[in-house]
Design goal:
heterodimer, A: two-stranded antiparallel ribbon, 11 helices, 2 strands, B: mainly alpha, 2 domains, two-stranded antiparallel sheet, 8 strands, Cytochrome d ubiquinol oxidase subunit II (chain A), electron transport (chain A), Cyt-d_oxidase_su2 (chain A)
Amino acid sequence: MVDFLPTLWFILIAVLWTGYLFLEGFDLGVAMHMLLLARDEKDRRVMLNTIGPVWDGNEVWLLTAGGATFAAFPFWYASLFSALYIPLILVLLGLILRAVAIEYRGKGDSQRWVELWTWCLGLGSFVAAFGVGAALALTSTGLPLDRNGDMIGGPFAWFNGYAVLGGLAVVGFALVHAADFLALKTEGPVRERAAAFAWPWGVVCLLPIALWAIWVTVRAGHPIAWVTLAIGVAAVVWWAIEARARREGLAFLGLGVFIVAGVATIFEAMYPVVLPASNNHAFDLTVTNASAAPYTLEVMSWVALIGVPLVLAYQAWTYWVFRKRLSGDAIPESTPFRAAVAAAAGGSDAASQPFAK
Amino acid sequence: MHLTALDPVLIARWQFGITTVYHFWMVPLTIGLGPLVAYFQIRWHRSGDARFYRATKFWGKLYLINFVMGVATGIVQEFQFGLAWAQYSRFVGNIFGAPLAMEALLAFFLESTFLGLWIFGWGRLPKGIHTATLCIAVAGSIISAYFIIVANSWMQHPVGVTMEHGQPVMTDVWAILSNNTAVWSFLHTILGSLMVGGMFLLGISWYQLWQRRKDGIDGVDADGRVIPGENAAIPGRDRADHRLWLGSLRVGSVVAIVAFAFVFITGDQQGKLMFVQQPMKMAAAEAACDTTTDFSVLSFGAWNAESCHSVRDVIVVPGVLSFLANGNFDTPVKGVNQLIPIYQERYGTHASNGNEINYVPLMPVTYWGFRVMITLGGLAAFAALVALWLTRKGTVPRSKWVMRLALLGILAPFAANSAGWVFTEMGRQPFVVAPNPTGDDKLFLLTQVANSPSVGAGELVFSIASLGGLYLILMIVEAWLITKYVRGGAASAIPELGKKPDDTDAPGGGTGQKSPDDVLAFAY
């Protein structure tokens, strides 16, 4: 099996993207729901704190997917990233704003400060989710490429209906997934509204991702893709039953199975092409012609064999530590502080005399 | 000017320079401050002393304000090789992505997951485990520094590879991981970061002690020894507060001084390697136009000098350059003019795009980058020594100007770090992957042919403007927040100190008491 290692790495990259969409999927969705579902600041803080301890670790799945693509498929990495220059710059701007917003939102002095960062958080997450979805959709449906693998046709040649479909797919999935997550992780009004969003609105939100998975499967016609697609369909039916009955844990699990099956379907339908050249299939990037040399893949396989289980173990532990549901009562009052400087502190007599012995 | 008239490579280089130097303002503070916060928490865990609890909380708060900016700007770093440097990514694909992926998988996950546990783990995790989460997160930062420097060092000095069909192929991952260039620059970078952490503690603690004196809280006796006081009306200004700042100041100073000693040693080793591995970089760093043994202390030339025509030596010290390169005073070091024909013979005269290759880096940048780095590093260490002397009697002088100098001193190691990286990256030009003098002469890549062919000047102008604009705003925000929390003193990180001025003097006041089970000890 000449292609064993590249195929293994193709699967691993699919796994990394699954991990990213599963974990940061609800992070991004929670941030968007801070604009959609929250009624007041208490709601927003309850929502934000469900992802507080874990969002940064979840985002590393994106970095790892990117890094692993560079390491295992440098030609895929180079072609895809340079072709999607503008959308990925927008993703970066969104991710930067979002990360900074989470940390800085509660550290200002005014209501306007909080509102400004809430918008940065929600919109940054939306842009990031949309852009990542567009990028994944385009790598599964193709871009116009030259012999060298560089995109032709100008800076916007990537823009087409698939990009929009993929963007909507990830945004929609993130919204449902986050609603399930919030229903599972909170107590009180947020839990109520999140569950009411998941069913029935979730069905609409999941349409784009379903359409995308079905489209690539029909086009590729691989039997395995049909099997995983069927699993995905079964999972989404299961999810709908549980979400409707408000069994939150099972609904979350059902949608989890759905995203695993969905990503598996999309990647399986692509294989062995990693980035089709929509203008000329002779220029397709495949697991064979886009991959790194066997020795590099072998080294990276050992690293992944040690690293991935370790990461899964300690991230699972984190979720165990923070397993409790959050309610408004659990959120401490935000604490504005006075400067420890006499003038700013209003000054007692002793303090108003500089350098009094 | 129409956008198409701009050179995409030049804009891409500026973008990489701006985003990387910016990212590396956050990173050394993360790497330098992290171990110090961990040290304070371990001391608190062992002794239960309130001073260490406060130090952990206060410095930890500033650490986190800065950390998130490093995270946010770090994503750009990993993406921009593929975004703007696709030809580079293809050329180095068999080697360079591997340490990046290792960094993400083995370091970033540790760092971010365990830092999340630390932030939200107050009062929820057992004390020992909580302390361990921070130590693991800090270890993650240091491991990540190692992997990224392995990647960078391979660009400075490619090892563990052979050329196959015009592309480098990895043959020995251990050679890449143990590259002598990587080992020395890793140590140099960590130590340089510790200087940043040390001077950060020194400057801010100095300000706090000065403020206490200004507000009439601390006085001095006839011998100049401190008489610590308290002022219940000001949040956190009790007697323990004085010990917090004095202790932090001393820890910071000692760390900065010791780190500098080792920065000096590791830097000397790097220099000696560089004379062998990248002779042109060192010749340009010394403005050594012709073969010599003399070290230039001061030389002038045209600002954009890429050749030696206009360089004029003002002060030179005989023998020292030879010592830097070889450890003796009389072996001459090859100058720029002697190196150019050697480079042309080995690596050609024209790039694959037809342009003539200029092998001389921008000399004013390398020359001054090198000197600014050394001068500011040395000044910072000297300032730390002076600070220890001035505070020997337990507090700082009243002078406002000395206080301002102490705060300004925080910037010195930051600037030294930036200057060092600008020097080493600009000094590698015109190469993005510099050739290994003892390796395959075909194994190198010129920066001018490493960019993304499909990305034009228009897209690059869009990205450099949007990223640059956002970075500028965020820098102002971060500086404002750090200033705000510094002015808040310990109470900014420990709200209990501000709320109940009456009990804060009690021993161990406010230390790590468990919150009621259902209320989070910390929430965003």
